[in-house]
Amino acid sequence: MRAVVIGSGDIGTAVKQVLVEHGHEVVTVGRQSGDLQADIGDVESLRRLFAEIGTFDAVANAAGHVRSGPVAEATDEQWADSIASKGMGQINVVRAALPHIADNGSFTLVSGVLADEFTHGSSISATVNHMVQGFVLAAAGELPRGIRINCVSPTVLTESEHYYPYFPGFVPVPGAEVGMAYLRAMSTPMTGRIIKLHKMTS
Amino acid sequence: MRAVVIGSGDIGTAVKQVLVEHGHEVVTVGRQSGDLQADIGDVESLRRLFAEIGTFDAVANAAGHVRSGPVAEATDEQWADSIASKGMGQINVVRAALPHIADNGSFTLVSGVLADEFTHGSSISATVNHMVQGFVLAAAGELPRGIRINCVSPTVLTESEHYYPYFPGFVPVPGAEVGMAYLRAMSTPMTGRIIKLHKMTS
Hints:
The structure is a homodimer of 202-residue chains. By secondary structure, the first copy, chain A, is α/β, with parallel strands linked by helices.
């Protein structure tokens, strides 16, 4: 596979490593790093990106940020920025890549444990993660040419120690396991699935 | 209860009727009709609305629209308009009303069957409905002063015959049952719940 991996953080780094270890060609995309540059919050930069890349079989998105803040205090700007980045930004990755991705290609997006388990001030995260998951569930039935779409929902990564304070009592997942989840989504017939990398609380 | 019912369509009409039948005081809000006017797509109109209403115990939102369109064809504007109305518009109802709603008050928002069952061109609906549901799940744990929040997910209403062509094979739900779901959300201890008014497909 020739895979486009967007995002240069701990998740994107782990996805790239697993794909390379399994013999796939990877084109990395970051806002300022990577083989090519784009910002998922800027749909025009995505349109330029995918027109430039040429042929590719898979897009693995690991980019997108969400702001934290209690419902009673979060600002219009915190909401708008979060929706534009991890929410609509990921949907725009699919929309911009769709004319260019190969037949039977795949998209793998990212949500997160804060879709299912909540922390103080995580309502924006929950909203945006659900937004992405809802899109994946429905878009799977609509994409043309055998193209598939799935979503990986990681908890905090073992490698992301700087995020530990925001995930009290959450068992981290090794980056390699997150990379494996992307590889599985890209390499099996699954579509419209959310791969949750945490145990579920009832 | 003194309840604010936003939305003058079939759902809002049904909710108002059930609440009045059960002896509650209802303040209706529409874009151009109702006791007071506001547009949930315009957060400043919501801030003015709730500052003007005075004391109230419940907000039942039945307003918000979503555009329809295949993933490969839907425009930036269709996405943005849908997120701003039924998505962020409902979240802004909660944010704008929160400083004014009574202790132990309640919010009831609306999603829809297109969160769980998909039709051709329903990806925007699925995205926006999940967005609202994700917010409700997380915000329930955060709202202060005993305030609760829930979401009603109706299928097409029996009364909404003009929508039948968009819901092929979907069994309609009577408006009165939708109104009862809102009444139950407002009148019982439930919080962070999605009341689904359709049978689930596995």
